[in-house]
Structures are given as structure tokens and as C-alpha cells.
Design goal:
Elements (H helix, E strand, L loop, with lengths): L9 H19 L3 H30 L7 H26 L10 E4 L3 E7 L2 H7 L4 E5 L6 H7 L13 E5 L7 H13 L2 E5 L8 H7 L1 H5 L3 E4 L3 H8 L4 E7 L2 H9 L2 H10 L7 E5 L4 E5 L6 H16 L9 E7 L5 H14 L10 H11 L4 E3 L2 E5 L7 H4 L6 E7 L3 H15 L5 E5 L2 H7 L1 H7 L6 E4 L13 E3 L12 E2 L1 E3 L9 E5 L7 H4 L18 H13 L6 H9 L2
Parallel strand pairs: 4-5, 4-7, 5-6, 7-8, 9-10, 9-14, 10-13, 12-13, 14-15, 15-19
Antiparallel strand pairs: 1-2, 2-3, 3-19, 8-17, 11-12, 16-18
């Protein structure tokens, strides 16, 4: 085993890839039970490194203390939860059962089936009370086919998937490691994980956290400039590349740059000779279905929208950017005022991701009448302005809004058509709709969802809620290709190892308890603790991380205590 903590040279990379090839052969001889045990050992080392992981991320991002929970949730918490669920799936396969054998399967619109993945078990039903998560399969896939295909390459553990390259994201600390683990479990593929330069200082933390995988020659984690990434990408012994990043970076890898790149694209002769999968972001819509909302509803949903935009200072591929409202909604201006108040009262936050200040300046130049709220932009986009916001991912605290006529199901269908046709990307979309208004639409509401072409749809919750649930696949709506890659190709997370999912639908309560009961919802969920306005943001994230580290009934009271009495 070679452990490298400095920028690497080509001969070191060659030696590293050679060690991984040995590890790949050994992995092909490793039983599913032993693979499950390795996931549990890695869970332990992640647990031991959790404090250092979160603190290092907070320092890198200069995250305000009021939202420090972001780095616990989107770091060690989800990583440990993923390792636990992955171990469970591998043990299930080892016992001769299928990962979906215990999953209820129901009908979904358009000849689809829906796999009911959340909540599962008594603890999840308590912790996720009021939430549900389901995976819709493509039309024509039946329950027997879905169950038979689940497991992916873990159903054939003796097949050697070779060595892959994972180009890690630079905005969320769990992305790179979990992408590498998914390659290992879903495709029997070991990986070189090249860190984004923003996370240079996390290398020693990752080496501790993922030591069991490194010791088994299943993973190598490196820093390095773009030249290092280019060398590995085109290395003859690399069988696959996975990237989380921008479409421009993806295209530079696949086609190169300059006039030659356009020639290759036209001739469909990619520079990259290996398969590539990707998660590349886009412009995510927030569709607001008009209704009669109380003052409390307006405040709470304004906090929901603000979180979708401002979590991680807006440096998220899934950040809400284009809010679509009804021009016929009498409360539209009240709702905008509520959002303005949230933007104004939140403490200032530094725009830390490289290039984001330039993107904000671009938005200010394009929209000189944009409202400025404590370093955040609120932009009205209509026929008198540019539509740049609809097809440019600003990756910064810029929220746009536009209006369409109509109400009820007619408005929803118009907004869905607008999102599909006018906005760039298909990664995630959110819909806000009061229970009464949803009931009025009847089955038409779910049928309309079938027309919304996004990989994850959040109903009354941020679509990124699906990212917090390891069992749910995460990726763009299927159908992209390398010459028109959109929001990417393929899925990650997906601890049930579902083959060829179409989309995920996550539903949450419109109102927190106890207002939820008065509004016709049976949810007992408190206000969402991950909201950027929540006083429980940090305490609840730490308690959930403790629960992920020590899953069981004994850890649950502290979770509720942290939320209800932060």
C-alpha cells in the first residue's frame, strides 16, 4: 500500500494504479459477507474521524456557527448512514435475498411502478414522520423485473470492474468519497479519488476515515493540479471516469478544448476513450402552486425557499434558482416580502467557492435592477429582461422569480412545461403546494408529476432531501448523452442498488407539527432542522451524526431533544 499526501508525479500514479489493479483482483475474490464487514469497519473509522472532518470543512468554507450543522449532515452523517445501509444490502444479497424483497411496490402514472423506499422500519418512521420517498421506474418495468435486477454488479461479485477515476466535487465534502464507494459496491470497481483543490486540506482526514478501503488497495485519494487529473483520465489502465462538477469541465474531458473539440464533437470522435458518468447540476425550479396561505404558512415556506437557495451559500448543484409563481395569486407579493425578510435577517455569509463572486457579478450586470439583501440577490425575470437566469447556473446566492397565469392544475401543468422547456438541467425540482390545493387536483397532481422531467422531485421539501436519504438514487433524469450531457449521466447513492431508475419523488409536510394536524396532514414532524433559519441547525445535525454513528433506539431521544430544545 502506498499512502501519498503530497502532489504526485507520473511514476507514483502508475505505481498507485498498479496497486489498485491488485486490489481489484482481490475484491473479485471477496465474498459479499466480507464486503459487508468491510463497510462496517469503514463506518467505524468514519465515526472516529467525524469531528475532524466537520471542523476542517467548517474552516475551509468559513461557515457561520448558526449553520454549522451543514457540514455534519453533508459529511460524516450521510457517509455513515450510507455505509450502514450498503452493508445491509450486501448482507441481504449474501443471504440469497434481493435488495427489494421487503420493499412495497405500488402503481405510478403512465404505466410505471413506484418503489416505496422511505420510511422503512420503526426508527425511520419515527425520525422521518410525515416524509415519504419513492423511486419511479421507467414505463414498462414491472415489479418482478425491478426486483430481479436490483443488486447490479454485487450480484456478480467475481467480476472485476477494473480501476476507475473519481473526480471529486469541491462544494460538498461527502460527494467524492461516496462516489468512490458506489463505484466499488455497484460496479466492483476500485478508484483513484482526485480531490478538488478546494478540499486539499481534507486529504489527511479522508485517509483516516477511509483507511480500511485504502489498506485493502481499493481506494487511493490524491491532491493535484488539473494536469494530474488529465494524466489519470487518459491513463490506459483507467476503465471508467466519474465526475461531479460543471458541464464545461465534463466537455473538456470528453472532447478537449478549442476548435479541435468542436471538430471531434461534430464527428462524434471523443478524446476520452473510456466510459464516463457524471452529476453536473443545472438551474433548479421551485414551483409555487397558488393557494390561500396563512401568515405562518408564508413565513415557513419562505424559510423553505431561502434554504433551497442559501444552504452552503448557494454553492450547490441542486440549489433552487428559478422560482415559478402564478401571476393570478393574490399573495404572491406577500410571499416575496416574506422571502426578503428571511434574506435580510440571516447573518452575512462569505461567498467562498472559487468563481462564484464572478458569477454573482455577472448576474448583477445582466439584471441591474436586482434586489440586494445582505449579499444575496433577488431577481425578477420577465419579458422585459434577459432570460440568462433560466440557463446559467450561478452557483451563488442568486434567486430569480418569474410568473405564469393560472391556478390549480392548469397552473401546475404550465409551470411544469416551463421548467421542462425553458430551464437548463434535469437534476432536481421542488413544488410547494398546500394540502387543500393538492386534494382539489385529485389524481391530476400525480399525473402532472410524471411530466416533470427531473431526477428528484421534492414536494413541499427541497429536492435535496432525497440526497440526505442514501437509499434513494441521485442523478439527472435519464436520457442524456456525452454530446448533450445536461445535468449528467447515471446515478449514485442508491444503496438498494436499483437498476435503471427513472426518478425519485420525495414528499414532506407543508406545515410543521402541530399546525400540520389542523391543516389535514397526519405528520408530527417539527420544523425542518436543516433550514438555514433553524436554531436547531447545528445541535440536530450533531445528534443525527451521533445516531448514524450509533444507530439504535438509544440514540433517538437525543435527536428529538436537539430539535425541540436546541
Amino acid at each position: 500500500m502506498t499512502t501519498i499526501s503530497h502532489p504526485v508525479e507520473h511514476d507514483e500514479l502508475d505505481r498507485m494504479i498498479g496497486e489498485l489493479e491488485v486490489g481489484a483482483r482481490a475484491w473479485a475474490a471477496t465474498t459479499l459477507y466480507d464486503r459487508a464487514a468491510l463497510m462496517i469497519r469503514t463506518h467505524t473509522t468514519v465515526r472516529d474521524a467525524a469531528q475532524e472532518w466537520a471542523q476542517t470543512a467548517l474552516r475551509i468554507k468559513k461557515t457561520p456557527p448558526s449553520v454549522a450543522g451543514e457540514e455534519w449532515l453533508a459529511g460524516p452523517y450521510i457517509t455513515m448512514a450510507t455505509l450502514t445501509e450498503t452493508a445491509r444490502t450486501l448482507a441481504t444479497l449474501a443471504a440469497g435475498r434481493g435488495p427489494l424483497d421487503d420493499v412495497p411496490i405500488t402503481a405510478a402514472p403512465g404505466g410505471r411502478i413506484a418503489l416505496q423506499l422511505l420510511p422503512v422500519g420503526a426508527q425511520e418512521k419515527l425520525l422521518l414522520n410525515g416524509f415519504s420517498g419513492e423511486v419511479w421506474m421507467p414505463p414498462g418495468t414491472d415489479a418482478e423485473q425491478a426486483r430481479a435486477a436490483a443488486g447490479l454488479a454485487a450480484r456478480h461479485p467475481d467480476r472485476n470492474g477494473g480501476v476507475g477515476l473519481v473526480l471529486g466535487a469541491g462544494n460538498v465534502t461527502l460527494i467524492g468519497p461516496l462516489d468512490a464507494i458506489y463505484q466499488l459496491v455497484a460496479y466492483n470497481r476500485v478508484s483513484v479519488l482526485k480531490l478538488n483543490p478546494t478540499f486539499h486540506d481534507l486529504l489527511p482526514v479522508y485517509q483516516k476515515a477511509f483507511a480500511p478501503l485504502i489498506k485493502r488497495d481499493l481506494l487511493r485519494i490524491i491532491n493535484g493540479a488539473s494536469e494530474i487529473g488529465a494524466y489519470i483520465t487518459n491513463h490506459p489502465d483507467i476503465a471508467h471516469v466519474h465526475i461531479t462538477g460543471s458541464g464545461a469541465t465534463h466537455d473538456a474531458i470528453v472532447w478537449g478544448t478549442g476548435p479541435e473539440a468542436e471538430r471531434r464533437r461534430t464527428a462524434h470522435q471523443p478524446l476520452l476513450r473510456t466510459e464516463i458518468t457524471s452529476e453536473l447540476g443545472g438551474v433548479s425550479p421551485i414551483i409555487v402552486v397558488p393557494g390561500k396561505w396563512s401568515a405562518a404558512d408564508l413565513r415557513y415556506q419562505a424559510e423553505n425557499v431561502a434554504t433551497q437557495k442559501l444552504q452552503n451559500c448557494g454553492h450547490n448543484c441542486i440549489a433552487g434558482q428559478a422560482m415559478i409563481m402564478s401571476s393570478s395569486w393574490p399573495q404572491a407579493e406577500e410571499f416575496l416580502d416574506a422571502i426578503r425578510r428571511v434574506f435580510d435577517r440571516l447573518p452575512p455569509r462569505e461567498v467562498w467557492y472559487p468563481g462564484s463572486e464572478r458569477r454573482m457579478a455577472q448576474a448583477e450586470h445582466t439584471y441591474p435592477r436586482a434586489e440586494r439583501h445582505c449579499g444575496r440577490l433577488l431577481v425578477k425575470v420577465d419579458d422585459s429582461t434577459s432570460d440568462e437566469l433560466f440557463h446559467t447556473e450561478y452557483f451563488s446566492p442568486v434567486l430569480g422569480y418569474t410568473t405564469l397565469p393560472g391556478s390549480g392544475i392548469d397552473f401546475l401543468r404550465a409551470a411544469i412545461g416551463f421548467a421542462n422547456e425553458r430551464l437548463t438541467g434535469t437534476l432536481g425540482a421542488s413544488i410547494l403546494v398546500a394540502p387543500r390545493d393538492r386534494r382539489k387536483m385529485g389524481p391530476g397532481f400525480t399525473e402532472a408529476l410524471a411530466e416533470l422531467r427531473y431526477g428528484t422531485i421534492g414536494v413541499n421539501c427541497w429536492s435535496a432531501t432525497g440526497y440526505l436519504a442514501p437509499a434513494l438514487p441521485w442523478g439527472a433524469f435519464p436520457g442524456n448523452a456525452i454530446d448533450d450531457v445536461g445535468s449528467g449521466i447515471g446515478f449514485v447513492h442508491n444503496t438498494r442498488l436499483i437498476a435503471n431508475p427513472e426518478r425519485v419523488v420525495v414528499t414532506g409536510p407543508f406545515r410543521p407539527f402541530p399546525r400540520s394536524w389542523f391543516g389535514g396532514e397526519s405528520s408530527m414532524a417539527p420544523p425542518l432542522p436543516y433550514l438555514v433559519t433553524s436554531k436547531a441547525n447545528t445541535s440536530s445535525a450533531k445528534a443525527l451524526t451521533h445516531y448514524a454513528a450509533h444507530p439504535g433506539w438509544g440514540s433517538i431521544p437525543q435527536v428529538f431533544k436537539s430539535i425541540l430544545a436546541p
